[in-house]
Specification:
This protein is mainly α. It has a single domain, classed as 3-Layer(aba) Sandwich (Rossmann fold). It is built from seven helices and five strands. Strands 1-2-3 form a three-stranded parallel beta sheet. A two-stranded parallel ribbon has the order 4-5.
């Protein structure tokens, strides 16, 4: 018998990662234990991972890019949690912290590299110009 499938949102993972509020964190932990045991498979959209990183870095939680990225990577590598493009998201989390750039810019860079794309059209050169394998296209 295959595991039941479900999805989970950003709030669910934030409760687990932060332990707050404790009652909801406990429920999230129990659900994730079921997933790790193979009794449940959580299918999570990539946007949830991006929102986790962003939310953890906001004033509410005020984590560093490194801390937020580490938490996102932990979710991506959790047994029973399936995220499309998980490897690209993990690479983006590392790049996000290493180069101190926005997570979505890091994701774009890793996505482009995976597709063999070297040029990127953008008017926001602040972050993308830090990425060694991308060229800012002008025309």
């Amino acid at each position: 018998m295959s595991a039941k499938q479900a999805s989970a949102d950003t709030c669910f993972f934030l409760r687990y990662l932060t332990g707050d509020p404790p009652e909801q964190a406990e429920i999230a932990e129990k659900v994730l234990r079921r997933a790790m045991a193979g009794k449940l498979e959580l299918i999570v959209p990539p946007m949830v991972i991006a929102e986790i990183v962003w939310t953890l870095e906001t004033a509410v939680f005020n984590l560093s890019k490194q801390e937020a990225s580490e938490k996102a990577i932990a979710i991506l590598n959790m047994p029973g949690v399936q995220v499309p493009n998980a490897r690209i998201l993990e690479e983006a989390a590392v790049l996000h912290a290493e180069l101190n750039i926005d997570f979505t810019d890091a994701y774009l860079a890793c996505f482009a590299r995976g597709k063999g794309l070297e040029d990127v059209y953008t008017f926001d050169k602040k972050h993308l110009s830090r990425i060694p394998w991308l060229r800012i296209a002008h025309r």
